[in-house]
Design brief:
Oligomer: heterodimer
Helix content of chain A: 10-25%
CATH architecture of the largest domain in chain B: Sandwich
Largest sheet of chain A: 7 strands, mixed
Radius of gyration of chain A: 18 Å
CATH class of the largest domain in chain B: Mainly Beta
Number of domains of chain B: 2
Shape of chain B: globular
Structural class of chain B: alpha/beta
Distance between the termini of chain A: 27 Å
Helix content of chain B: 25-40%
Largest sheet of chain B: 4 strands, mixed
Strand content of chain B: 25-35%
Structural class of chain A: alpha/beta
Strand content of chain A: 15-25%
Number of helices of chain B: 2
Number of helices of chain A: 8
Number of domains of chain A: 1
CATH superfamily of chain A: Metallo-dependent phosphatases
Radius of gyration of chain B: 18 Å
């Protein structure tokens, strides 16, 4: 089937092929928030055209600084390209959310390189760790020393901006054999307390590395106790859940909840079940940038359906 | 064949001391064969587990006490080897990195990848 698709590409793109490309494309998602409802503006290119007037923020993910395998011999270079896109945005986002796997191996030099390039955005970045950020010899010390200030436990926290309550969760620590991502009882208790006094009309944005919902159990794409977190969030009128980890776009709207996974800025991964493993997907070098990206998110007033805008590194 | 060896090894321990000598005499000719079988079993359990495509291969091996098992990661993504009961735990293994652990006592050791816990395996030490 894959072969056929590749063949079809030579004769122009069908809807399926375009969607397939989209799945891999992107630098980040630009979001805008106004009137309390998060609304994605589209791919950053579209977003720029739409000139969102609300509060916008950007999601970036899975930079894997230090990755140098055939799927992308220079993950720092593609991050630089993504950051270049951010720098060129006429209206800077309020901040960037990074949904983890900043580095590939949690090495100090990898964190240093990432910090240096992300610093060029001139925009504040709120991080949560991916499992690749927690594999130093001291089980996460390297991550927490850099990004853990003001966080609880393994690095979870919340903050408010433009009337939206943002919650960064950590689901890559203390993983159990045979299981999926893990939040743990301590973090769930913290989440419950964090949400307790908030009104149902408070827009909520939750971000974490591994998808909170189970997208594909066979590849570990989900969070074992994610449903407990979602149960705590159910009463809120607007909940947006941003994840990374799977290096491709997946979107789902379920009642008041919108789920979105971001593209990587480093390398694509295959669609669930379409390959022997979820490992890095080798694509032709000249196509790589159509598989990488970021997303921008705009919170807009009104009852427009939630949407998220992803932008590839290819222009 | 491994089960047979296990039973043969296990049997003398159950015997009364007085009969042990007789049994040892009876088993004399068998001892060599048993050693040979044990050698075959050790060879079967090469003590190497490879990691390819997010999978431990073979997922389960049986080794003799004292065997050193080596895990080698062939993936482009780091993996680790973590015993469920915290007896052993590797650091993150990058591409072609390996980790070895010597099993000094018998038992069943279930393990998983600390980064991708859906990856699981088992070492049976007899």
């Amino acid at each position: 089937m894959a072969k056929k698709d590749l063949g079809d590409r030579g004769q122009g793109l069908g809807r399926r092929e375009v969607l397939e490309c989209m799945v891999w494309a992107g630098t980040g998602v630009l979001w805008t928030v106004s009137g309390g409802v998060p609304h994605s503006v589209g791919l950053i290119g579209d977003a720029l055209a739409a000139e969102p007037t609300g509060f916008t923020f950007l999601q970036m993910s899975d930079s894997h600084i230090g990755f140098d395998k055939p799927a992308n011999p220079d993950a720092l270079a593609t991050l630089r390209e993504a950051v270049g896109i951010v720098k060129a945005m006429p209206a800077k986002p309020s901040f960037i959310i990074h949904t983890g796997d900043i580095t590939h191996l949690s090495k100090p030099a990898q964190f240093d390189n990432a910090d240096k390039v992300f610093g060029e955005t001139g925009v504040q970045i709120h991080y949560v760790p991916g499992e690749h950020d927690y594999i130093d010899e001291e089980n996460g010390k390297a991550y927490l020393e850099r990004y853990g200030k003001g966080t609880k436990g393994a690095g979870w926290y919340s903050f408010d901006d433009h009337g939206v309550h943002f919650i960064g969760l950590v689901n890559v620590v203390d993983l159990k054999g045979g299981g999926l991502g893990n939040l743990g009882a301590e973090q769930l208790a913290w989440l419950e307390a964090d949400l307790k006094d908030r009104s149902n009309s408070t827009p909520i944005v939750v971000f974490a590395h591994i998808p909170l919902q189970v997208l594909y159990r066979e590849w570990g794409w989900g969070t074992e106790d994610g449903t407990q977190a979602l149960a705590l969030l159910k009463r809120f009128g607007s909940v947006t859940i941003l994840n990374g980890h799977i290096h491709q776009l997946a979107q789902k709207v379920e009642g008041n909840m919108t789920f979105h996974t971001a593209l990587s800025t480093a390398f694509p991964q295959p669609a669930p079940g379409s390959a022997p493993s979820p490992g890095p997907m080798l694509v032709p070098a000249d196509k790589l940038r159509t598989y990488l990206g970021l997303a921008s998110i705009t919170m807009v007033q009104g009852n427009k359906p939630l949407a998220i805008v992803d932008k590839t590194l290819a222009t | 064949m491994r089960n047979l060896i296990a039973e043969l090894r296990f049997t003398p321990a159950r015997l009364l001391p007085g009969r042990a000598v007789v049994v040892a005499m009876l088993l004399g000719p068998l001892a060599g064969a048993m050693l040979a079988l044990a050698a075959v079993a050790a060879e079967d359990a090469t003590g190497t587990v490879t990691i390819d495509n997010f999978t431990f291969t073979p997922p389960e091996i049986t080794v003799a006490v004292g065997t050193t098992v080596k895990w080698v990661n062939h993936d482009d993504i780091p993996h680790s080897v973590v015993n469920k009961d915290k007896v052993f735990r590797s650091k993150a293994l990058d591409t072609d990195d390996s980790y070895s652990y010597t099993f000094a006592s018998a038992g069943t050791f279930e393990y998983f990848c600390g980064l991708h816990p859906h990856m699981t395996g088992k070492i049976i030490v007899k």
